[in-house]
Amino acid sequence: MPDPAVLAPAAGTAVGPLGFGTAPLGNMFVELSDDDAFAVLEEAWAAGIRTFDTAPHYGVGLAERRLGAFLRTKPRDQFVVSTKVGRRLVADPGGAGRLDGEGFVVPATTARVWDFTADGVRRSLDESLERLGLDRVDILYLHDPERSDVGLAAALETGAPALAALRGEGAVGRIGIGSMVNEAVTAAVRTGLLDLAMIANRVTLADHSALAVAVPACRAAGVAVVAAAVFNSGLLARVEPDAAAHFDYQDVPPEVLERVRRIAAVCANHGVDLPTAALHFPLRRGASSVVIGGNAPGQIGENRARFDAPVPSALWFELGVEGLISA
Known about the structure:
Layout: E1 18-21, H1 34-46, E2 51-53, H2 62-71, E3 80-85, E4 87-91, E5 110-114, H3 118-132, E6 137-143, H4 152-169, E7 172-179, H5 182-189, E8 196-200, H6 214-221, E9 224-228, E10 246-247, E11 250-251, H7 254-269, H8 274-284, E12 287-292, H9 299-308, H10 313-321
């Protein structure tokens, strides 16, 4: 493909229109070597991507370390990097001899501990900066507060002000929530403290339930929407969706597979493949940015080409008429 334009953030925005999410670089589902991870990141950079998202959760620190090693080879003023707080990492010698139980192919010798307290948020950021080898991150998200052992309300009560304090001190530029639960996103943005909402799996062709309440709540609060996991962890990444794909990090339910196959057929009728439509859909429905992942060379460049490809308005009209997307 020709040299793509650099997808840097536009003036006044926090993120570029296409970002790279590093969960796959934490060995999500599949083990990667350091060299393979670096090659994927190099391809993302070559594709013009300058917004990179990570988290301690991804491979219990592995994704942060790999991303940091890569970004230290690039000029600091040419990229935006985000990470997340809420899960602190602690040594767990009892995990020796087994693998992590949360979908990452890494040793279980590091455990995640929920911590949305002010002290925990600060310590988590400091620990992330050490793993990244950077002196700052541009964006800091509360990660899955609804899953915390103290519950959503308590996690937001301490976590959101802690992020706001870090932003006020200039330690981070923008703050937000990262979640795949619409109720959590809605509650978080209604605190009035956040700049961004990274919504995973819920602003997609297969599941756009966030459009009912969460996205309107973001709009009302002046919070930008970042759509992550726009392929629903694999199902929408295939031109011909099949039962072997993941959906929301699990096996795909038969009824979801059938509906996505119908969506793919409509896309094909308009000369558009399913992954291309999946990349474009969130931007039509209120998202300012789309975050993609990848764990093999070729994927990122292919998806950048899809991101640049035109999609006819007639496709969206037919999907709406067929009841496959909401009006």
